[in-house]
Write a structure and sequence with these properties.
Elements (H helix, E strand, L loop, with lengths): L1 H22 L3 E9 L10 E6 L4 E6 L5 E7 L2 E8 L6 E8 L3 E7 L12
Parallel strand pairs: 1-7
Antiparallel strand pairs: 1-4, 2-3, 2-5, 5-6
GO molecular function, one term: carboxypeptidase activity
InterPro entries: CarboxyPept-like_regulatory (IPR008969)
Keywords: Carboxypeptidase, Hydrolase, Protease
Length: 119
Amino acid sequence: MDFNKARLLYLIVFFLYSGLSVSGQSIHVSGRVLQQNTQTPVEFANVVLFKQDSVFLKGTTTDTIGRFEFENLPTDNYVLSVSCLGFETKRILIQNLTESAQIDVYLNENVLLLGEVVI
């Protein structure tokens, strides 16, 4: 009888510990922002992570080599929005994010020509 109690206690502790270790896992999304034509990094681009229902979650800017990172994310669907002055804004849908992901974002230049200036 003592053996069965010890076995039951062991199983309960095992399942409780297993549940804690699984819930302790966190997901990271990282990547780089690059110019589409030249493949050069885009410095100080705004990178914003929204939940799929457009609720703001986190935001950051890229570093001098175009890198960004979001840590400790729950499993969910997200929208990654990347914008920078002189470039078109890009939105990327991330569905069923269950593990860490590396996402490289390529931005197209947004060239605006101004009209003639008369002085």
